[in-house]
């Protein structure tokens, strides 16, 4: 459980963190605290970090003449008139919905208020909004029939002294809020309005009176930030915009410093734990494997391989992140590292995020090793080992056999999914943990697997998602980084074309024709959809069928099952087409992938389960339907499944997104370049860090609430330097405030992981 929802795992060493992590129900009561649940605000600290989106001054409250559409406003004005429409009269009932229109003025401009509701509610509102009544009205300005209006605004009616005399009781806090020099508008829900949030923040601040700053004075001075309690007051009860900036600077630094201090301590902790050295042993398994390679390693593979070999030979655990462009040969580098460890008497575990990818890795490694993977078997080569697969969907008998091979040491290489994390899995001598697709795993999952070794194992983390250096420094700061940019010789070029399916629907038919032509020439193709069925969820769960910048509604996304039926009966009739998606039984998914890899299937209509790890060199075409539903990194990964052999590839991005939309900008960027690192920067500029890294890494929302790794690189660098100095001077973090800072970060990360799994 997370710290916010579960029992206290450990006692806090400071009164500051004890007070900050107090549950909201103990401060605000059960009823109010439950209203904050949709916002994921559960503790006093959560509420203090739930900041207004924008602020406006009391002076802005009464100038209706400067209002603009889409502004969120709160105005003090006088009711001029109010009229009810479509109200029932006697036996007459209109088919139209009853509504109330009122006009308010500040004697310089005017604004229309519109309300819809049942007749009795309309009557109630009309009795409140009588001509001459003075009130506070808040909402978003819209334009209707060339006139500005507020639809269903929050409002209170006040007397000459500003006391509330009318309106909904839930908006009573408006009268207090508008008396402040600056008024904050908070992210809110339908039931929890910004005024209530402001009042709750005020109550929470009262409970923090006298709060001691958890950071040492010297650290705050060098970071040039104000104390914590004044910073929180400045953000929730500001007297000036300068105060707001100072408060944001403090919380921005706190985010950066907490991350960097946690990472610095992890690095120090790893260095303090000894590991079993695994030096390369000449004349054994790795040398035999290298001698059989039908190609020459790239310069990057040689360089990174040598770097890994040096670290494996040390008596402290390697902790390395290997970033590799799509098709750069990361798996080969990882396999050579695993064979190095096996030669030195250890075992290697490869953890993959999905069963499809785990099975693919098992097949690939077994095929690459040949008789070198037949240790203890008739026909096995000298120095051979065994490669074992362990996944959750295996039969009981298969699991028993895999567990025995891992526990006895018979299997030098064990490949699996989350099943490798379960308590029943034991290793004889685990020497290396390889984690594929790091953005789908958290630190705690790596640690859970590493804990299965008697000595601290070496760790190699791989990702095909290029990560900007600023993100890597922020989120993967406990790992050293290697990069593979060079693609091995023999890989074909891949052209990418954006197909506007709305303006040129005929071009979609041409896409299917292109697939048929490639199949006729002996090649294979992928067709990727954003959802499984017409009733399933889109690629971005919970997203409505609209563009992310709200420019225009999109048509429903194509579904795998529907498109498979349409293509099989139409444009691709006579072509061998199969379906692959995550809801198929594991054995069916594995069988589909085996047939496609063997060339027994021509076209695979699939969801993003093929995003990583699937290696079919004969696949030359990919059509991504509703490509606007996917992010840049995901499109880059998907495209990387083609052009892996000698045949030139073509990737067609079908979209109904109009020119100029953010979605179309993403697709155009993908079409312009195959440089994943350049695309990662574009992705980071458009989206939150948590999105770039994937939901599983960042939790329910990005842990970076204020910090932006592109804009705040200087803050991150300063925080990293100060964090390293703190850990160097105080390795055990005897300073209680620093210790609690790390404890909170670790607890949040562990809680997010436990909730997800």
UniProtKB/TrEMBL annotation:
Residue span(s) of domain Helicase C-terminal: 531-685
PANTHER family found in the cross-reference section: ATP-DEPENDENT DNA HELICASE HOMOLOG RECG, CHLOROPLASTIC (PTHR47964)
Domain of life: Bacteria
Hydrolase listed as a keyword: yes
InterPro entries, per the entry: DEAD/DEAH_box_helicase_dom, Helicase_ATP-bd, Helicase_C-like, NA-bd_OB-fold, P-loop_NTPase, RecG/Mfd, RecG_dom3_C
GO molecular function: DNA helicase activity; hydrolase activity
SUPFAM superfamilies, alphabetized: Nucleic acid-binding proteins, P-loop containing nucleoside triphosphate hydrolases
Name assigned to this protein: ATP-dependent DNA helicase RecG
Gene3D superfamilies: Nucleic acid-binding proteins, P-loop containing nucleotide triphosphate hydrolases
Enzyme class: hydrolase
Pfam annotation, one family: DEAD
Domain named Helicase ATP-binding: residues: 311-484
Known EC number: 3.6.4.12
Protein keywords: ATP-binding, DNA damage, DNA repair, DNA-binding, Helicase, Hydrolase, Nucleotide-binding
